[in-house]
Design goal:
The chain is of the alpha+beta class. It contains four helices and seven strands; from the N terminus they run E-H-H-E-E-H-E-E-E-H-E. The strands form two sheets. It has a four-stranded antiparallel beta sheet with strand order 6-5-4-7. Strand 2 and strand 3 form a beta hairpin.
């Protein structure tokens, strides 16, 4: 079970710490205290709230990248796993990364090895050889 501090949880939803605390006070989200006495929320509850109420706002900021590894990939999206759909071979993993929903297809073995479950914090790293850009019809 992933426990996420209030400030980080608010960042994943694109709301202020105060807003998240009000939701906790109003019963929209349960909170507890960690071993250090800080208020935390369960990651799976947070993922459920994000998914069911479409809380990710367009002006949400993506959380800071926790990785200390150097990488040639510049497109890194830190977020909260909101859904995992698996069969015996393949899985679809959805992340809410600030205002962006990122979907990845990977082996179910990789999902298990990484411990990806709703409420997990993860980083989607994108390195593509092709990027397609489209514009509306009639725009010149």
């Amino acid at each position: 079970m992933s426990q996420i501090r209030i400030k980080e949880a608010a960042g994943y939803l694109g709301v202020s710490d105060d807003t998240l605390r009000r939701w906790i006070d109003n019963g929209a989200l349960a909170a507890s205290t960690d071993d250090a006495g800080r208020m935390v929320v369960d990651g799976s509850d947070l993922a459920h709230l994000a998914r069911e109420t479409a809380l990710a706002r367009e002006d949400a900021l993506a959380p800071a990248d926790p990785s200390t590894t150097a990488s040639s990939a510049r497109n890194r999206f830190v977020g909260l796993v909101t859904r995992v759909v698996s069969d015996p071979v393949m899985s679809q993993v959805e992340l809410q990364c600030g205002p962006h929903r990122v979907v990845s297809l990977m082996s179910t073995e990789a999902v298990c090895d990484l411990g990806l479950v709703p409420g997990s914090v993860a980083v989607a790293v994108v390195k593509a050889t092709t990027v397609i850009v489209e514009t509306p019809k009639g725009q010149s």
